[in-house]
Amino acid sequence: MSGNVIKVKAVAAALGLSLLALSAVQAEEIAPSPQINQQPAPGENLTPTQPQLQELPSVADLADRLLPAVVEITIESRGPGGSATPSIPGIPGGEEQGQPSPDDPSNPFKDFFDEFLKRQPDGQNQPRMTSMGSGFVIDSSGLIVTNNHVVEGAETIEVHMHDDTVLKAELVGRDPKTDLAVIRVKPEKPLAIVSFGDSDKLRIGEWVMAIGNPFGLGGSVSLGIVSARNRDINAGPYDDYIQTDAAINKGNSGGPLFNLKGEVMGINTAIFSPSGGSVGIGFSVPSNTAKNVISQLVQYGETRRGWLGVKIQSVTPDIADSINLGRPRGALVADVTPTGPAEQAGIQSGDVIVEFNGRAVNSMRDLPKIVAETEIGKKVPVKLLRKGAEVSVMAEVGRLEDGEKMAAATPGQGGADKAAPAVVTVLGMTVTSMTDELRTKYSIDKDIKGAVITEVAADGLASEKRLEPGDVITEAGEQEVQGAADISARVEEAQKANKNSILLLVAKGGKQGEMRFIALKLKK
């Protein structure tokens, strides 16, 4: 019998079978053969029992109902460098010397010019580019949702309905930050529509169905499950994607992701694919993110997001430890926009925002989304943690689009630095009080105050946090830094308090717009 086992192993190895398969074969070989003349025990059921498999859902009826509301979108755009006017070859010195123009019938080169124009694609220098995507109807009068990247740069937009009707469409509005857009067609009769569901109720493992126009194959249906939620794929400031293994390919962009009730739970936007085809990792914008954006695009033709006027960063375990926060949570304020809503409300650099308008801020990523969804002009409560104490303030929400312009145009406060020059070496770095020479050498913004890092030890604590010469420490231990001596004093205080790390506010590269907190360990 052992010889048979060896043969089985050899055959399995030759065929590339897994060890699990090999184990099953081996177990079958070694198991004793049943006795042919063995009598069943009284009342024994010889019928083998099979495990009860749950029947997979059928989506045929659901697909029939939803397909008429899903559309194919074809756009035409001009290639790079296109021009509305074709370039026509002329005669050197031509009309200036009295020669007939190219379109003059008496011009002997007229046939040549006509042939040249015929060869220009659509009469243009550059060929027109055609691309395709998907969309879905949300209003029977002709409003259609799709992706921004599907219609961006489009000169013409055509919508192909499920019944093969082709309609011209116009752009209503688009939002690059969430990659959403709304277009409008004018149908002769009311269109079939679909409605949004509550994506917050979507569970990992729940069945979902995608319908769209992959590779131009309109009306394609694929089924899968929700693989994950709240995915950040670094596509924009409001990343909160649904991940699914339902097949999504090029051309599915802008199409809907349905639950089995037929509600739109997401808008298919991106795929992860080394090959360009579906590998079972697709991403959809959640319906609860999309609903507010789409409503604004329909009403205003643009977005009107809330704005607080803060630059924030994640609360790492080291930072949480250095400010006695306990577990990492909230959004750490690294900088406040002058005259913005946060500054007017009394929010300060170093505050940790843990609640905004009654909604918990569990991580940095939560705050931009919550603020953006808040009504502009509304006064809302903001709960902060400041130096270990809870503080509540009221902030009037501004408009993000106005805030972005304000932040770009904010002038520096200026002012001379009067701290006496000093140099200290601490925590693997050499820090020098600010001087005009250092400002010039490291191109430090004129409104930055603090102490300049002039040297970093290769194997020191500062190097581990990627601090570099030219960085400016503006706060240490949650106190302002006027000169290098303040750094050593704050470090000494932290060590006496038996802290594991000290919190520094650093202007990376000496730039006002690159402020961030760094928790620097006090010992290795």
Summarize the structure.
The chain has helices at residues 2-15, 19-30, 60-66, 110-119, 148-151, 287-300, 317-322, 341-345, 366-372, 400-409, 436-442, 461-464, 484-496, and strands spanning 70-78, 128-139, 143-146, 156-160, 166-175, 180-185, 207-212, 220-231, 241-244, 256-259, 264-271, 282-286, 306-307, 310-314, 331-336, 352-356, 359-360, 379-386, 389-396, 398-399, 423-426, 429-433, 451-456, 472-476, 479-480, 501-507, 515-521. It is α+β, with helices and mostly antiparallel strands. The strands form 5 sheets. Strands 21, 22, 23, 24, 25, 26 and 27 form a 7-stranded antiparallel beta sheet that branches.
Distance between the termini: 61 Å
Apparent shape: elongated
The major beta sheet can be summarized as: 7 strands, antiparallel
Strand content: 25-35%
Q: Structural class per helix/strand content?
A: alpha+beta
> Which stretches are low in confidence, meaning pLDDT under 50 for 5 or more residues running?
1-38, 80-99, 411-421
User: What is the number of beta strands?
Assistant: 27
Number of helices: 13
Mean pLDDT value: 79
Question: How are the SSEs placed, and which strands pair?
Answer:
Layout: H1 2-15, H2 19-30, H3 60-66, E1 70-78, H4 110-119, E2 128-139, E3 143-146, H5 148-151, E4 156-160, E5 166-175, E6 180-185, E7 207-212, E8 220-231, E9 241-244, E10 256-259, E11 264-271, E12 282-286, H6 287-300, E13 306-307, E14 310-314, H7 317-322, E15 331-336, H8 341-345, E16 352-356, E17 359-360, H9 366-372, E18 379-386, E19 389-396, E20 398-399, H10 400-409, E21 423-426, E22 429-433, H11 436-442, E23 451-456, H12 461-464, E24 472-476, E25 479-480, H13 484-496, E26 501-507, E27 515-521
Antiparallel strand pairs: 1-2, 1-4, 2-3, 3-6, 4-5, 5-6, 7-8, 7-10, 8-9, 9-12, 10-11, 11-12, 13-20, 14-15, 15-16, 16-17, 16-18, 18-19, 21-22, 22-23, 23-24, 24-25, 24-26, 26-27
Helix pairs in contact: 1-2
